[in-house]
Amino acid sequence: MRFRHLIPIVFLIVVAIVPAPLTGFAQGGGTCDDLVAQALRDLGTNCAQLGPNSACYGNAETTASVFAGQTAPADFFAAPGAVADLGIVETITTAGLNEAQGTWGLAMMNVQANIPASTGQNAMFLLVGDVSVTNNVQPGDIMYSAMQDITLRTGPDNACGAAPHSMLIVQSPRDYPITIMVNGTEMIVDGTVFLRTQADGTLLVMTSLGEAIVFPYSTARVAVPAGIGVTVNGDQWWTGWRAYQQTEWNEYVVSEGIPTTITRYTIRIPIIIRPSGIGDVEITVQTEEGEPPIVRRERFDFPVVDQESGALGESLDRAPWEAFSVGCALCPELVTYHSNADGDWDIYTLNDAGLSQLDNNVSRGTASRDVQPTYAPDGSWIAYTTDRDQALRGSWELYLATPDGSEQRRVTFNSGADVNPVWGPENLIAFETNRDGNWELYMFDVSGDGTPVRLTNDLANDINPFWAPDGGCDTPDANQRFVFQSDRDGGDWDIFMMEIVDANTQVLTQLTDNDAEDTVPVLARDGQTMAWLQTDDMGVDNLWIMDLGTMEARQLTDTGVDVAGHTFAPDGSFLAYHSSVDGDFDVFAVGVDDGLIKSVTDNANVQDFAPSFRCTPERLIFQSEVVDSSLAPAQFELFETNPLPLTSMAGPADRLTFQADAEEMFPMADPTEEINSKQGKAPAHP
């Protein structure tokens, strides 16, 4: 099939939306209704004609502070109607509704964000109720405008029924989407959104009009159209994507009474229509603008293994180990992937039906997260990371399983986190662990007693090992070596190579030595060419390659956006990777010799990433959300395409998985080191 974005047809009836009367939301009417109505009228009077990059005291009680070293004017933010320069304001705090005292804190900010000053436009930030906003943009910062990066805290719900939740309302001008950072979460706002923090520290994003894009430049990117809410945190994680019930939106209806003297356009809450019927019923969202967003089910969240260093791990009782040996390297046509088909995350092998079922479930965990597979050179065993033993004082541990899941063996026994196994030549498996208080590399031999042997011993972090191939059954390579990244040299990541002479002797060679971040090394099948990511002065991860014979390195990509998921084609002539050049992720191929870049996928507003190969350069597999439906937002399935030749347009892609209501993600075939499910996470520098 050729890729196309499938959009269900939704019939929209546009109606005039009249704000509900405020008195309808107070128990029996009375002082609370009057207080809210008067406070909103005063807000419109006090903050009308507010200038750019300014804050306005809208209604009591409201306070503000200035940055250290800045001088506050006399009577700074002392009473309703007071105005302050956002450039010196560090924090603005508004108080929740107090019916007894007759107060309800309201404050407004005009924020430049990324809008050109020549347009005369600003975004509106409105603090409603128990809210605190801290400006993370220091005076004189040239990268962001004041309050474009903030820390937000909102308090509990108001006791008065007429008042909405305490929240921050963000409204962009028409035709000028803004980019902001809230509690470490980057988002693009093109419309009106309501932002609230929750008891667990997460951020609730609800879109009233238009659309918000959360984590817009990462693989966790999620669109939040009108009528939808999502819960996020600053670590590129989200959950709870859903259309809110009309009764839930009605809790915000008082925001429709905010005067148009301060808004960019009238605030209206959406109307949610949930028709009855049989089968897949589309939910229609009506707004004054007439958008018909497609309302879909909640997407499952893929687990990201914690990369924090911790306390020293404690050895746990080991189970008896039965040694075994594996054969020399083949390309066994084995494809593994992650799926949540049975309600939690497991490792599966691809079958002809494209279904994730018990007979191809490798890890077979129960209420556990099983991730990061790697298979033996001959495909007879698969190692993976799991958290199934947390109740037994484990953290993340390593297991081995046969491809059909019929045999399961626990390998590591430590209270620390043992993660990211990578199977090397013959019987050796390297892995990362924080059992020593920082991240180190260990190795075990399945043909021996299975006891992990420490390979690195440094106060810095050593992660992301990638073995040099052993050459296959005909030309086995006696050298047992791998590349990895470490921050032992000056506090930034560099690439090193370790050659294992024997269990007690390792030879270490530093391959990169600069002030940039050099991360995620991968090797071609011949073991002589290495590719990795290097961060440039603008913070962009570019693809570099090195000839390990001559140690000559050169930059391979310079597209202005991050590259990730890079992997060599089996013949070493090109690499596949994913990148968000046009605002959504696509899979690309780049020639090793000429640097020619080809867009292997090109689907508007569709995420395609995590490439891997199936033994030959002509068989590239990846994950895509192109087949999403009204009940499955951004649901990923696996596809295969031929990226060759690099000089012509991409051909059609064949769909490989067909599991309804489940995600199939992060395929791994060739090479056997699965790097994509880590999603670029790395420990902080010491």
Protein architecture, described:
There is one protein chain. With 686 residues, the protein is mainly beta. The protein folds into two domains: 22-272, Jelly Rolls (Sandwich); 336-678, TolB, C-terminal domain (Neuraminidase). Helix content is 3%, strand content 36%. The strands form nine sheets. The protein has a 15-stranded mixed sheet that branches. The longest helix is centred in the N-terminal third of the chain and has 16 residues, at 31-46. The chain starts with 30 loop residues before the first helix and ends in an 18-residue tail after the last strand. The relative contact order is 0.09. The model is unreliable at 1-29 (pLDDT under 50).
Q: Level of helix content?
A: under 10%
β content, as a range?
35-45%
Based on secondary structure, the structural category is mainly beta
CATH topology of the largest domain: Neuraminidase
CATH homology superfamily name of the largest domain? TolB, C-terminal domain
Number of strands: 44
Overall geometry: elongated
What is the rounded distance between the termini? Answer: 49 Å
Q: Provide the number of structural domains.
A: 2
Identify low-pLDDT runs.
Answer: 1-29
Largest sheet: 15 strands, mixed
Reported CATH architecture of the largest domain = 6 Propeller
Count of individual helical segments: 2
